[in-house]
Each structure stands twice: as C-alpha cells, then as structure tokens.
Amino acid sequence: MQGEPQALRTVDEDGDFLLIEGVEKTLTIPKKAPLAIAILVGVITLGALGVASFALLAVAGAALMLLTRCLTTRNAMRALDPAVLLLIAAMIPLGIAMERTGLASQIAQGVFGVVGESSPQLLLAVVYLLTFVLTEFVSNNATAVLMTPICIGMATHLGMDPKPFLVAVTFGASASFSTPIGYQTNTMVMGPGGYTFRDFLRIGLPLNLVLWVAASLLIPLFWEM
Question: Which stretches of the chain are assigned E, i.e. beta strand?
Fold first, then answer.
C-alpha cells in the first residue's frame, strides 16, 4: 500500500488493515500541543498549591484531554494494559490484607525478637532490610507507618536515639526496586517498557542490596546512635 503518511495513519487507526511496517505508530496532533501542555501545567500547579490531591487532578486532567480531543477515546483505551490492571487489582488487596491482619506487624516484631539486643549497627541493618522487603509488597506509606512505632519502641527500650532507625525506615520504605508492585511508577512502566517480574528482580534486587549496605554503613556516620 502506498500513500501519504497521514492517510496511511488513518488507515492504520481505522483497524480494517494490519500495517506491518512503514508507518509511524505514534499519531501526533500538533495543533493540540499547546492545549495539552496547558492542561499538564495546570494539573501540576494546582497540585503544588494544594488545591486538590494529585490523584483527583490527574483524573480531571485526563478527562480534559479527552474532552478537548487532545487524545481520542480509542487511543486512550488502547493504552490501557490489561496485564497491569489485573496486577494492580490483585496486589492492592494483598497489601491491605497483610496490613489489616497484622501479618506485616508480626513479621517485623518476629525479626526483631530474633535479633534481640545486638549491636546498634546490626539492628539498624535489620531495620533497613525488613523495611525494604515489606515495601516491595505493601505500600511505602503503610510500611513507614508500620515500622515507625516499632522502631521508636525498640530504641526506647534499648536506651538509644530512635532517629537513625527512623532515617533507615525513611530510605528503606522508598527503595521499591525489586518488584513491579512495590511502587506505582514501577507498575506504570511495566507494560510500556515490556518488562517482566524477573526484570525487576534482576536489576532491582542488586540495587536494593547495594543501598542496604550503603545505608547500614553511612547512616551511623551522620546520625549518632
């Protein structure tokens, strides 16, 4: 088939023909670019000013993109990855279940019970390790909320400053690299990037281990224990 690029794109979008090659798959609408940029800037600005939550503003921004024809409904539906949607639908309840049944809390307290009153550096390393493991399955916010009172209680019981342990929780809860369900952006890039669960483990787990060692060694240097 031969024709002008725009005409070939129209044929491709129509869906009656399967075009194997020769046509750029990305359909651009240059005249809508200023409007799309304005919507994006508006969402970020309103979110930064605290007018509403970013989640609500993002949905409103997406709706405006559709209403103003910056994005067609058909293309928007095509962009939804069923595998990612099913992953989110399955893993969010799992994280909530671990939190509400007390399983996550029991895991944390059990680990600290095994470590006991060991050296402060070892306890710090265990805090970071446990935090980054939990945050791969439970949300980072829930993990921080769970680990904070445990660390404060442990430090108080041992007569130590809780600040280094809280710093370890802060960094560890943000180290969601080993699974596609640990953080929203991991899930978002999984489909478009063509990644698998194994890819996150292969790259993310070594990164987690490097940061674990670095945090265990460096946190005590900046926050005295």
Answer: none
With 0.70 as the threshold, say if the pTM is over it.
no
> What letter would DSSP give residue 135?
T
Distance CA 15, CA 35 (A): 28
b or e along 130-145 (b: 16 or more beta carbons within 10 Å of the residue's beta carbon)?
Answer: bbbbbbbbbbbebbbe
Condensed to tens digits (0 to 9), the pLDDT of residues 113-157 reads: 766 666 788 888 888 998 988 888 877 777 887 778 777 777 777
Q: What are phi and psi of 50, to 5 degrees?
A: 75, 20
- Tokens 């483990």 belong to residue: 201
Q: Which amino acid is at 209?
A: L
Contact indicator for 144, 169 with CB cutoff of 8 Å = yes
How far apart CA 180 and CA 136 sit, in angstroms, is 8
How remote is the C-alpha of 32 from its chain's centroid? Answer: 30
- Is the Cα dihedral 158, 164, 168, 174 positive or negative? positive
